[in-house]
Structures are given as C-alpha cells and as structure tokens.
Design a protein that fits this description.
Distance between the termini: 40 Å
Structural class: alpha+beta
Number of helices: 11
Number of strands: 9
Largest sheet: 7 strands, mixed
Order of helices and strands: EEEEHEEHEHEEHHHHHHHH
Shape: globular
Strand order of the largest sheet: 3-8-9-7-6-5-4
Strand content: 5-15%
C-alpha cells in the first residue's frame, strides 16, 4: 500500500508514504446494499438493510469490509455505479452527505473514462469510494492504513497488499467530510481523477519511484480535459515564471513535503504536460512505466530520457524551460 498527498495554492499537495494515498485541502466497509442508479440513495442503519422492503446485493464480496469500517459511524448511503464497461463501483456516504455522493456518482464514469483514455482499461475500474461522516471516522479509516491525517487532508487512497505486477486488491478512496465544501464540485472532480490515476497505475508503481513523475502524471491526467488554463492550474509556477524565475531542474522528492510544495506539484505537472505535448502521450506513459519501477538514480532517469524520449536531461530541461516561457503569459 502507498500513501500520497496532494496540495496546491488552490488546494493541492501530495507526498509518498507507505500504505495509502493522501490528498490535502487548503483554503484556495460489511454488508451494504447496492442501490441501482435509478433507485436513489439507501440509508443503512442495521445489519439487514432494506430497499423498498427488499434486501439487495448482500452477496457482493466487497460489502463486508466496507460495513465493518464504515457502519459503526452511522447509517450508510450507497450507490452502485456502472463505471467502466462491466465494472460496477460503489460510492458510499452517510446522511448529510448526499450532495457529495451525487457529485462523485455523476463524475465517476467520466473520470474513469478520462483515466482510461491515457492509461488504458487494464486496471480496477470498480473501486470503492467512501465519504466519511466526520473527522473521527476519517481519522479512523485512514489511521488503520498507517496514514497520518489532519483537517487539511482531503482524501486517502488505500490499496491492499499485492505482489508487484499483479492486480492490486482492496482499492478504496476515502474522502474527508469537508472536502467538497473546501474545493467545490469541480475540485472534487479533479481530485477524483487524480486519485483514480493512482489506482490505475498502482500495479506498476513501486514505492520510492520519483515523485515528480508519479504526482506530475496523476495531475496531468486529472487536468488534461479540465479546460483550465496554464495559470489556473499552476498559479504559483506562473507567478515565478512571470518574474523571470525558471526551474533549475526537475523537483526532488523532498520538495513535495516542504513549504514550497505547491510549486513542486505544479512544476511536476508542467514537466509531464511538456513531455506529452512535445513527445506524445504514449511517450509520457512509457516514461511513467519505466520510472515507476522503484527508486531511480539520476543516471537511471537520464538513461530513461534517452531511451524513451531520445533526449538527454539537458535537452529535456532546455525544451521544458522554453515551453514554460511560452506558457507564462
């Protein structure tokens, strides 16, 4: 399992730990009942939940762990969402968070389509997504995975144990109950895409891989179809570029957890955007697969640049800086 965190000047920051994926906010599971799309949300308060007097879907193997973790914190609202072909995802919330459930339900299928358009369809397109009822539940759900959370953490993506190269198990995204209020519906949509990218790429991602690639790629996928401008996506980076300050190199892992984290994430996003723009989406995806195999030395990264992009590090950096100048308008 792996922990990542996401933040920006508009509300993003991510860093890698072990066991889960964490998403931050700033100012800028258990037998559940599966409710069909047209049946509305189901409130589940007892072991035998009812939908119009009948029990539904209690044999779903994903239900037991969800109820065990979530139901102690109150009645449950569940939606079954056709999210990717034959795949069916579960979106779980509590009374009072119907709006969160509606946004996630509406965004899930298009978000999965957007991620699949980049990564392909060979990934778990049927995750369980939970919106916690309060901070106590959010802390409990994330602490069990070894994640350290605060009021600023917006979401945590969890993955069960698995052998590298095999399909990850027990993938779940848990949202802070305050997330939608803090980032809005559009922010939730972007956040969902970012976290789903981590879900999609987890099978080929080894802990310790370069953060600029992991987080930059996830943010690139999340923002790719957003329609936002360069300055809207990367306000901190834009300010520095307009002041004449260009990145000296790709950001290091340490920069993702420091006081300049917003710049680190925006810089990583821009590097991946440049690679996709100048070398093609297939090249960006191939580079991700190569660099995501684990910790990478500078020499190993340089070799990957040459093999995949046909460019040295200095050529890559020079091209990226020129691209940044052209976009900092």
């Amino acid at each position: 399992m792996n922990v990542r965190t996401w933040l920006s000047a508009r509300g993003r920051l991510e860093f890698c730990l072990t066991l889960a994926s964490v998403t931050l906010l700033t100012g800028a599971c258990v037998a559940l009942i599966l409710v069909p799309r047209n049946a509305g949300p189901l409130q589940l308060a007892t072991d035998q939940a009812e939908v119009l007097g009948t029990t539904v879907g209690i044999d779903d193997p994903r239900l037991a762990p969800v109820r065990r973790d979530v139901q102690p914190f109150g009645p449950i609202l569940v939606r079954q969402v056709e999210a990717g072909g034959i795949d069916t995802a579960l979106v779980v919330a509590h009374p009072g968070h119907e709006a969160d459930l509606e946004v996630l339900e509406a965004q899930l299928a298009p978000a999965i389509a957007d991620v699949s358009a980049v990564w392909g369809t060979e990934w778990n397109r049927a995750p369980v997504i939970v919106v916690a009822s309060n901070s106590a539940e959010f802390t409990a759900l994330t602490r069990r995975a070894g994640a350290s959370t605060t009021a600023d953490v917006a979401a945590v993506s969890l993955t069960g144990s698995y052998a590298p190269g095999t399909e990850p198990t027990e993938q779940r995204i848990v949202f802070n109950p305050d997330a939608r209020r803090r980032v809005g519906d559009e922010g939730m949509a972007t956040l969902l895409r970012h976290e789903l990218t981590h879900v999609a790429t987890r099978a080929v991602t080894v802990d310790g891989a370069p953060q600029w690639m992991l987080e930059g790629f996830a943010e690139y996928v999340a923002q790719r179809a957003s329609g936002q401008t360069f300055s809207q996506i990367a306000p901190t980076l834009t300010t520095r570029l307009r002041a004449g300050t260009l990145p000296a190199d790709l950001v290091t892992d340490a920069e993702f957890t420091g006081t300049d984290a917003a710049f680190a994430y925006e810089s990583a996003w821009s590097a991946c955007s440049y690679i996709a723009d100048q070398h093609g989406l297939a090249a960006l995806t191939q580079l991700y697969r190569q660099l995501a195999q684990g910790p990478q030395s500078t020499a190993a990264q340089d070799a990957a640049f040459t093999t995949v992009l046909g460019a040295s590090r200095s050529q890559l950096l020079d091209g990226w800086r020129s691209w940044l100048r052209a976009h900092a308008v």
